[in-house]
Amino acid sequence: MENLLAKYYRPRLPHMWCPGCGNGIVTACVARAIDKLQLDQDKTAIVSGIGCSSRASGYLNFDSLHTAHGRAIPFATGVKLTKPEHNVIVLTGDGDATAIGGNHFIHAARRNINLTVVVYNNSIYGMTGGQYSPLTPHMSMATTAPYGNVDRPFDLYELAKGAGATFIARATTYHATLLTDLIAKAISHKGFAIVEAVSACPISFGRQNKMGGPAKMMKWQKDHAVMVEAMAKLDQTQIEGKFPIGVLYQGEGPEYVTEYQKVIQRAMGSGK
Ligand code: SF4
User: Ligand 1, from 15, 23, 207: best to mutate by most atoms within 8 Å of Cβ?
Assistant: First the structure.
């Protein structure tokens, strides 16, 4: 395999991520998935919003858009509609995707537009100082919840499924090979595809919740994630506190860009 760094990364080291941050692992998985599929680099766009993870677009050597907070999906929608032949991959964080960008997220899922969205879920707003996000677990600590977060988190799978996404998967940075495979599957899927990448923010979430540093946070991922097929065979007491990884859902539905093209043809009088 050709050197991934030379082929897919811009020479912008040192990067801005903290030591032990999971963002580098997720980004490497994205590059590996692109390499696995041998995507045309000139026909692949990377779109991100704002936050630590969204800096990934600037490190990758593609047509990259580093956009406004929560607005990666609408920018990506515009790219996909004008360049339907392009692979459009959105890199976003838990806050960017489900708080500021929450409305865009559910409507893109409802439209089933052919985008791949990788949600770097580190359970917190890392860049802005450790505030809780819609994916911060109930009663976890955050700078805006020093005695515990009373909000219940979204289950990203349930949110995406309820909104109409047709491919939903999850893995962790500990399971990097699986994460790479799932991102490749998501890119190959025709429709709105989500991959939740459970990632560690040792500096903020880890420190505030006394999780013991990067290695222990990855061990936590190893101990709490269970392949979805194996999880189905366990009883309630065995799955307490665990979460499934793998392909959680794959379905079909009319794809937005294809449907839009039909309307354009009809309006121009060349379709039925
Ligand atoms: Fe990573 Fe957290 Fe540091 Fe941001 S604050 S770079 S998410 S470890």
Answer: 23
Residue nearest to atom 3 of ligand 1 (CA): 18
pLDDT at 270: 73
Give me 228's structure tokens.
Answer: 């979805």
- Domain CATH number, residue 201: 3.40.50.970
Domain that holds residue 6: 2-269
State pTM to two decimals: 0.97
> Cβ distance 129 to 143 under 8 Å?
yes
| Residues within a 6 A CB radius of ligand 1 | 17-18, 21, 23, 52, 122, 126-127, 201-204
Paired with 9 in beta bridges are: 60
Query: 116 CA to middle of ligand 1, Å?
Result: 23
Alpha helices in the chain (DSSP H): 4-8, 23-37, 56-59, 72-82, 94-95, 102-111, 156-163, 176-188, 207-208, 214-224, 228-231, 236-239, 256-267
Please classify residue 249 by burial: count the beta carbons closer than 10 Å to its beta carbon, then call 0-12 exposed, 13-18 middle and 19+ buried. Answer: middle
Q: Work out how many domains the chain is built from and give that number.
A: 1
120 CA closest ligand 1 atom index: 7
- What is the C-alpha to C-alpha distance for residues 241 and 102, in angstroms, rounded to an integer? 26
Q: Two tokens at 13?
A: 């080291």
From atom 4 of ligand 1, which residue's Cα is the shortest distance away?
Answer: 126
CB 140 within 8 A of CB 150: no
Residue range 48-94, pLDDT digits in tens: 999 999 999 999 999 999 999 999 999 999 999 999 999 999 999 99
